[in-house]
C-alpha cells in the first residue's frame, strides 16, 4: 500500500503503481515524465498504469507527462482514497488492517485471479 503525500514522479509513480492500493493527500501529484526526459518508461507501467486507469488515460499520462493531482487521481481511479495530510498514515493503517484481517488464502487467490493475463506474475 502506497501513502503518497507529495510528488510521485517517474520512478516514484512506478513505485506507487507497484502497490495494490494508493492513498493520497490533496498535495499529491503523479507524473509520468519519461517522454519529456527522452527515455522509455519502465517499472512495468505499461501494465500497472493501464490496468488501473485504462489504456487511453495511461497513454495520455505517458505521452504528455501531464501531472495528475491527488484529487484527480481519486476521480480517475489512480488512488483509492484521498485524505487530509494529517490523517494519511492512520488511513493507510486502517485500510491495511481491514485487508489483513481477512482470510489470507482467499486474499492471495483473489489477487491471483485478478492478475491472470495481465503479465504480472504471482507465486
Strand order of the largest sheet: 1-3-6
Order of secondary-structure elements: EEHEEHHHEHEHH
User: Which structural category do the helix and sheet elements fall into?
Assistant: alpha/beta
Largest sheet: 3 strands, parallel
Mean pLDDT: 93
CATH class category label? Alpha Beta
- Annotation, overall tally of beta strands: 6
Helix content: 40-55%
Continuous helix count: 7
Ranges with pLDDT <50 over ≥5 residues? Answer: none
The Cα radius of gyration reads 15 Å
Features:
alpha/beta; 2-enoyl-CoA Hydratase, Chain A, domain 1; 7 helices; three-stranded mixed β-sheet
Describe the structure.
This protein is of the alpha/beta class and 123 residues long. The chain has a single domain, classed as 2-enoyl-CoA Hydratase, Chain A, domain 1 (Alpha-Beta Complex), CATH 3.90.226. The chain is built from seven helices and six strands, in the order ββαββαααβαβαα. It has helices at residues 11-18, 34-37, 45-53, 55-64, 70-76, 88-100, 104-115; strands spanning 2-4, 7-9, 22-24, 29-31, 68-69, 81-82. A three-stranded parallel β-sheet has the order 1-3-6, with helices on both faces. A three-stranded mixed β-sheet has the order 2-4-5. Helix 3 (45-53) packs across helix 4 (55-64). The model has no long low-confidence stretch (mean pLDDT 93).
